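note to self: dont lose this again. the chain is below, predicted strucutre after it. 246 aa total, dont forget to put it in the shared folder this time
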Amino acid sequence: MTLAGKTAVVTGAARGLGRAIALRLAREGAAVSAWDLNAEGVGETARLIAAAGGQAIAVQCNSAKADEIARAVGETHAKLGAIGILANNAALSPFMKFQEITEQVLDDLLAVNLKGPFLCCQAVIPDMLEADWGRIINISSSSAQTGSAHQTHYAATKAGVIGFTKSLAMEFAGTGITVNNVPPGFVDTEGLQESPVDVAGFAQKTPMKRPGRPENIAAAVAFLASDDADYITGHTLSVNGGRYLN
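---
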């Protein structure tokens, strides 16, 4: 499996899943354009890739705003070339009681978690159509598959990502572009550690009795980005240690 000669965009790449995905795609040979609002974090991701012998640029970008996406695409084109791989990872995942979710909170989640992937896909698909080859991997969530108390807004946006993935896959299936999604389940990231979840306690309720690692998600993304997965599209590749069986 090699991604040599490909340019990949990874959103939300400053830490956690996004950083792991960026590192893995670079390890497979892709040049990586790492996007995030967190300039320091995404800069560190690019430095880690370079230190390992890979090629990467860091782009400070709000991937939920069309003008910033256009700027980030332009910078990526100028420094790395046409985009062949897009990993839509940027997301907000707060825990809130349903009656306490404000319209602004809901709007923010819809913008980052659903509108962002939509706009990013619109921005990079022209490159993929020109090349007759493209890989889009959306990071959804096992919360969209199982439901999640105090995350009704988050689960709803991620369920939208799954539906978006299936529909986009159908529309572009004959073009050389595949569109798939990976719903992580209970992965040990900074976000999980900062959440109100009792990580050790919840782990004992899961089939494997341990959380996953960001590298598990990155491996699934790398596979779906490869030519080994060229007959897979519209698929939901669950990586959750058996938390949800589909």
